Amino acid sequence: MKKNILIIDDSALMRRVLSDIINSVSDYQVTGLAVNGLEGLDCLIKNSYDAVVLDINMPKMNGLELMEQIKKHRIRTNVVIVSTVAKEGAYETIRALELGAFDFVTKPESFYETKSDSFRAKLLQTIHYATRSTKLEKNNDFSNSIHKNRTDRASDTVLERKTKEVRKPKRSPVKNNKLIALACSTGGPKALQSVIPQLPKNLNAPLLIVQHMPAGFTRSLAERLDELSELEVKEAEAGDVLEKGKVYIAKGGNHMRIQHQGSRAIISLDNDPPRSGLRPCADFMYDSLCDSAYDEIVCVVLTGMGSDGTKGISKLNETKNIYVIAQDMETSTVYGMPKAIAKAGIVDEVLPLEEIKTAITNYVGVQ
Q1: One domain, residues 182 and 128
Q2: Helix H or strand E segment including 32
Q3: In which family does this protein belong, per the annotation (predicted)?
Q4: Residue 168: what pLDDT?
Q5: DSSP letter string over 46-81?
Q6: Which residues is 300 bridged to in the sheet?
Q7: Largest Cα–Cα separation, the chain
Q8: What are phi and psi of 268, to 5 degrees?
Q9: What is the domain count for the chain?
Q10: Is 240 a catalytic residue?
Q11: Residues of the domain holding 71
């Protein structure tokens, strides 16, 4: 059964482009079009959709206002934001993710770019994961997908149980000189809000984050987390010296590595080619830590598509004393990255999202 998609965008051109891309795949069909949030809300109240493709800046009711109404009316659907890279658009996109949007896709800046393979692939991939969300299984009748999801989840449950049973014995924590290195992707911005603001100001380690985002968005993410946290949170800049109790988010569109100058650990950024299509890439960050002076590195893997982080952490495990924490299946928006690291057999703890902040604090301690 085809999955029904609603497009809400005030641009007739974008509605046509998005419709053409979505309808080109046999699994999906665009069954609703709206020119603003008010019309979109009416569609959502009257009909059922497996996913919504939503613009932010629209007349009468914008995307954020619609997200608030979706929450208020308890409408169950997965929303994919298609947003510009403008600063104000970036902040609003982060806010939309807070309000429950599944993920976002960067809106092309020109008509020519809307025809690009990269935009088409990213949009369809995001819709694919959004419509596979098990949160919708109870309210939508697409039996084949449900059966596959249930089969996959049964396999994942066995994997997670096995991981918990055979994980490595807990090592004796090193008292000082620790680093926390965290990786996340789809669902990451919201997951980070359940972790970072709950960490103490005097955390006894610096914290590096690679969240898969394009240029223009990570600064807004850092600013929002900084508003909510006791810790100082910033978008990483070349030359930043790592300090305990501070959080550094890899700059969108740049890889982040750690270099040492004497006793100082310093961030460097570069625009080397993407790894596995990703820049920033968590594997790149973890690779750079193999020769670091840190006595112990706590690796945290949260929700996300794919397997970024697994190769880097596996390599890091060969040279450094590490402790690995992975988010569990039930609380992950997409159980991809945590699943991959669990399958690699180097996870020390598999935890629900709400327990990860405590595990981090307990393991690295406070100053």
Answers
A1: no
A2: strand 28-34
A3: Belongs to the CheB family.
A4: 54
A5: HS--SEEEE-SS-SSS-HHHHHHHHHHTT---EEEE
A6: 182, 325
A7: 64
A8: -125, 150
A9: 2
A10: no
A11: 3-134
When pLDDT is averaged across residues 318-342 and rounded to a whole number, the result is 95
R_g of the chain computed on alpha carbons: 21
Between the alpha carbon of residue 359 and those of residues 66, 103, 134, 355, the distances in Å are 36, 27, 27, 6
DSSP state at residue 231: S
Lowest-pLDDT range of 50-54, 97-101, 175-179? 175-179
List 133, 145, 212, 283, catalytic entry: 212
| Other Cβ atoms within 10 Å of 333 Cβ, number | 25
238, 269 Cβ separation under 8 angstroms = yes
Check whether residue 251 and residue 340 sit in a common domain: yes
In whole angstroms, what is the distance from residue 265 CA to residue 347 CA?
26
Lowest mean pLDDT across 35-44, 92-101, 102-111: 102-111
Residues 173 and 295 in one domain: yes
- How far apart CA 167 and CA 350 sit, in angstroms, is 9
Both 186 and 102 in one domain: the answer is no
C-beta separation of 322 from 298 below 8 A: yes
Nearest to 212 by CA among 105, 63, 350, 365: 105
Catalytically annotated residue among 185, 220, 229, 332: 185
pLDDT at 147 over 90: no
Is 11 catalytic? The answer is no
8 Å CB contact between 174 and 198: no
Q: Does the annotation count 50 as an active-site position?
A: no
Mean pLDDT of the chain: 89
The CATH number given to whatever domain includes residue 33 is 3.40.50.2300
Which residue is catalytic, options 55, 103, 240, 308?
308
d(CA 238, CA 251): 10
DSSP letter, residue 309? T
- Write out the two tokens for 180: 């926390």
